[in-house]
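Side project, low priority. Logging it here so it doesn't get lost.
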Amino acid sequence: MRIIVSACLSGENCKYNGGNNQKEKVLHLILMEENEVITVCPEQMGGLPTPRVSFEIRDTAR
């Protein structure tokens, strides 16, 4: 089975602060031989650097 996983959940250091959010359940999926796991970081794919300044969207209702 093909599975797309957030790169930071798989343990890749691509989070805004250079760290990751590694999760054991994700690692289990990666280690299962029948799975083809594709890791992606949407922020890096969008051209943002790692590490990067953190930000959030606030009060978008006008």
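Brief comment: The mean pLDDT is 91.
Revisit when time allows.
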